[in-house]
Design a protein that fits this description.
By secondary structure, the protein is of the alpha+beta class. It folds into 3 domains: 108 residues, Alpha-Beta Plaits (2-Layer Sandwich); 231 residues, no CATH class; 66 residues. It is 41% helix and 19% strand. Strands 4-5-6-1-8-13-12-11 form an 8-stranded mixed sheet. Strands 3-2-7 form a 3-stranded antiparallel sheet, covered by helices on one side. A 3-stranded antiparallel sheet has the order 16-17-18, covered by helices on one side. A hairpin with a 3-residue loop joins strand 5 and strand 6. The longest helix has 28 residues. It starts with a strand and ends in a 5-residue tail after the last helix. The relative contact order is 0.12. About 2% of the residues have low confidence.
Length: 452
């Protein structure tokens, strides 16, 4: 099936002003002032087709535009990191201009210092005929063991775990997203033609700064999804990989990727072995370079040689950094200092980017790709149509109400010359040029003021 995919990232935020740490609502209000000044809202669709907004709990959140491939998504997601960091720079300058200096820190992680969790949500277009509960049953073993290849890792109270989200997930399938968080959200909100599509909303993954880990996270999921959402029904071979107790297994994997997990049929396999079984079944659905990386990571972790993939697996890269710090500083490497280093690893523009710039971890995107993704949408999804309307309405100084599924332009001249609203539907996420787009853009061009 042709699909679109996207990622929503909730960022951690802290701010200080005049020596005082600001409350979360205060920090968020100051951060979003530049966006509100431009868009009259703290919720805006941008020129690249993505969405930047203030989420529940005063978390900045960025949703990528609809993408067609995992590599396209990498650039779109990193563009979001840069857009959020840029917003902080603008907000800092704006606050300074009013005589109120503010410093912001933004974190791409999933847990704050007091144990609150915030998410990285993956979205995959699936067919309306997919029976969701059955599909999630078959995907659960894969999602539970996936942190082996893409967990972000966390040092907490003397223990290192390979996943940040694992301790905060409490079910396989639920309509809830904040309390009793599941692996997959059941809310039937396709954000597309409901007669044709569903949206698989996955809550299980960690946020990633390390690009090969982000690539593995979504790329392997897409490959396994081809075994589940396909003509004729899911691949029956996935039944043999069901876990006896998925939530218990999730905690076991976070503590030890080589722990023995009990399967529903009584066998015991490690997370690496469960992932290898999925690779054998779904590897042909992944692009060759991704399948090769998937295999190499599993081989390294399975052999106890994960240090050989520290440049490509985020939890290994973080553990290496923490281990080196402890060796270098000995008794001075207190719990508090290790926790601070763990947090600094995830700061936008912080420790991780220093490691990346020095070649200690691998980058897959180019600066040019990311710069383009900041201002331009993917050309082969409906994000292109949305972005075109956003840009044309801006140039015409015309109000527009934009959502994932539609764009409404307000107060355009109607056939009788009187102001009227015009709405463009975007029911198909795969369609970059829906019917009516050209007419609407032409009307906006006519409404735009002439260049002086």
């Amino acid at each position: 099936m042709d699909r679109v995919l996207g990622v929503e990232t909730e960022y951690g935020l802290s701010a200080r002003s005049g020596g005082r740490r600001l409350s979360a609502p205060e920090a968020a209000e100051l951060l979003f002032r530049p966006l509100v000044a431009r868009h009259r809202s703290a919720n805006a669709f941008l020129a690249n087709g993505g969405r930047l907004y203030l989420d529940v709990g005063a978390h900045p959140e960025y949703a990528t535009p609809e993408c067609r491939t995992p590599r396209q998504l990498l650039a779109a997601e990193r563009a979001g990191d840069e857009l959020v960091a840029g917003l902080a720079a603008q907000a800092r300058e704006l606050a300074a201009s009013t005589g109120t200096p503010v410093s912001f820190r933004l974190f791409k992680n999933n847990v704050d210092s007091v144990g609150n969790s915030y998410g990285c949500h993956e979205n995959y277009l699936v067919g309306r005929d997919l029976e969701l509960a059955g599909a999630v049953d078959l995907l659960t073993a894969f999602l539970v063991t996936r942190p082996v290849t893409c967990g972000a890792g966390r040092w907490h109270r003397g223990t290192f775990r390979i996943s940040q989200r694992a301790a905060h997930l409490h079910g396989g399938l639920s309509a809830l997203t904040t309390r009793s968080r599941p692996l997959v959200n059941t809310r039937d909100e396709p954000l597309a033609d409901p007669a044709r599509f569903r949206r698989l909303h996955v809550l299980a993954g960690d946020s990633n700064l390390l690009e090969p880990s982000a690539w593995l996270k979504v790329g392997t999921m897409l490959a396994v999804l081809e075994l589940v959402d396909r003509p004729g029904g899911p691949d029956a071979r996935l039944e043999a990989l069901r876990l006896a107790d998925p939530l218990a297994a999730l905690r076991q994997v976070a503590d030890d990727p080589l722990a023995r997990l009990e399967l529903a049929d009584g066998r015991q396999l490690s997370a690496v072995e469960v992932q290898r079984s999925h690779l054998e079944l779904a590897g042909d659905h992944a692009e060759p370079a991704l399948a090769a990386l998937w295999a190499r990571v599993l081989d390294a972790v399975g052999a106890g040689e994960e240090e050989t993939v520290a440049g490509e697996v985020e939890w290994v890269a973080k553990r290496r950094l923490l281990t080196a710090f402890r060796r270098r500083h000995g008794e001075e490497a207190t719990e508090g200092r290790l926790a601070q280093l763990d947090l600094a690893f995830h700061e936008l523009g912080g420790t991780f980017r220093v490691l990346e710039a020095g070649g200690a971890v691998t980058r897959l995107t180019t600066p040019e790709e990311v710069a383009a993704a900041r201002v331009s949408p993917p050309p082969d999804t409906r994000a292109a149509a949305r972005a075109a309307v956003v840009a044309a309405a801006r140039d015409a100084f015309v109000r527009a109400t934009v959502d994932w599924q539609s764009c409404t332009v307000h107060d355009l001249a109607g056939a009788d010359g009187r102001p009227a609203d015009r709405t463009l539907g975007l029911p198909d996420p795969l369609d970059p040029a829906p019917a009516g787009l050209d007419d609407l853009l032409a009307a906006l061009a006519d409404a735009a003021p002439a260049a002086s």
